[in-house]
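User: quick one, sequence for these tokens?
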């Protein structure tokens, strides 16, 4: 199974109202077709009343295998449904890579 597919499958346990997993590896100094850098946007009612660090910890726990191995970077944008609506259903863009000899 591809790493991106594995991440998507595991995060479904958090009952997302919206889930987007983006492979941003192509923006970094890695071989073609790598799956090392990901951006996750996840909206879930399970995050209600939860501080951001606790939300991140839930995602880290769900993706422990990927983070221990092939995933080098994981950008997380985690929202409650009301936060997502209030923010116009958008998340910040990722900055360009500034490492890897570029």
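Assistant:
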């Amino acid at each position: 199974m591809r790493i991106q597919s594995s991440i998507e499958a595991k995060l479904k346990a958090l009952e997302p109202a919206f889930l987007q997993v983006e492979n941003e590896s192509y923006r970094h100094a890695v071989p073609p077709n790598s799956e090392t850098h990901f951006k996750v946007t996840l909206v879930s009612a399970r995050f209600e009343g939860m501080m951001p660090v606790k939300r991140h910890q839930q995602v880290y726990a769900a993706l422990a295998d990927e983070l221990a191995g092939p995933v080098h970077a994981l950008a997380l944008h985690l929202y409650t449904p009301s936060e997502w609506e209030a923010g116009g259903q958008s998340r910040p863009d990722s900055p360009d890579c500034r490492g890897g000899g570029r």
